[in-house]
Amino acid sequence: MASEWFKLSEPAEYVLLIQMARVLASRFWKAYGALFDAIPNSHPHIRAVILSSALPKIWTAGLDLYDPNLGTQLAPATTDPFRKGAELREFIVAFQHAIAAPERCPVPVIAAVHGLCIGLGIDVISACDIRYTADDAAFSIKVHIGLAADIGSLAYVPKITGNQSLIREFALSARMFNAAEAEKAGLVSRVVSGSGEGVVKAALETAKVIASKSPVAVQSTKHILLHSRDHSVADNLAYTATYNSLALQTQDLAECFRAVKAKQQPTFGDVRKKAGAKL
């Protein structure tokens, strides 16, 4: 699954580290979506994912505006504007689907940010479950290219954060904001001293804790939290009751009871049993 776009490794048991290695061109986001969508089958033993950057000073500077494929796609209509619009809508929806792939990934995804995280970078981290940042990070929701952000920022960020005024300031002005402001707004949950290495280390410690838990419980929790975000309390309670009527039959529950009584650490099997692909 490693490629020119990503470096993959397993720094701890059940934990997959994905490092972005190139600028975000159109070929990147197609490979990005495919990578995350493949994880349940390619790496069935993985229980937590960390998303970071292999670049020393930049997490991502956003979409590559010099990408020739992007330029061709966004060229003005030369025929029927409706047909061009239908083509562009298909392009945008596919782009959105790819960048939202961490949300579809059944295991938790932790974004470990350092350096610049600009434009599309906000879309990318917004679809992750947990966001940590190094204190050297700088963020910006871009509007000054003449278009509202359409890949995820404006859909996710207002639901993620608790400070609507501050987020609207960031989005409408496109000004840079630092790690402390990102934490204040609720965009990230932890600021780590140092740069990329330090924030990945912090993310790894959290990932290892998550990976030690029942994968049935963790994956169910992620799924139900996402449902809760987009539904009423009553709808979510009803959904959870139905969902857990299946999940309560898991072997993980019995294993947890056994381990508590025996004063041992529980051991859990993979949710999927297919053989994983090599890195």
UniProtKB/TrEMBL annotation:
Keywords: Fatty acid metabolism, Isomerase, Lipid metabolism. This is Enoyl-CoA hydratase/isomerase. InterPro entries: ClpP/crotonase-like_dom_sf, Ech1-like, Enoyl-CoA_hydra/iso, Enoyl-CoA_hydra_C. Pathway: Lipid metabolism; fatty acid beta-oxidation. Belongs to the enoyl-CoA hydratase/isomerase family. SUPFAM superfamilies: ClpP/crotonase. One of its GO terms (cellular component) is mitochondrion. It comes from Pterulicium gracile. It holds the Pfam family ECH_1. One of its GO terms (molecular function) is delta(3,5)-delta(2,4)-dienoyl-CoA isomerase activity. GO terms for biological process: fatty acid beta-oxidation.
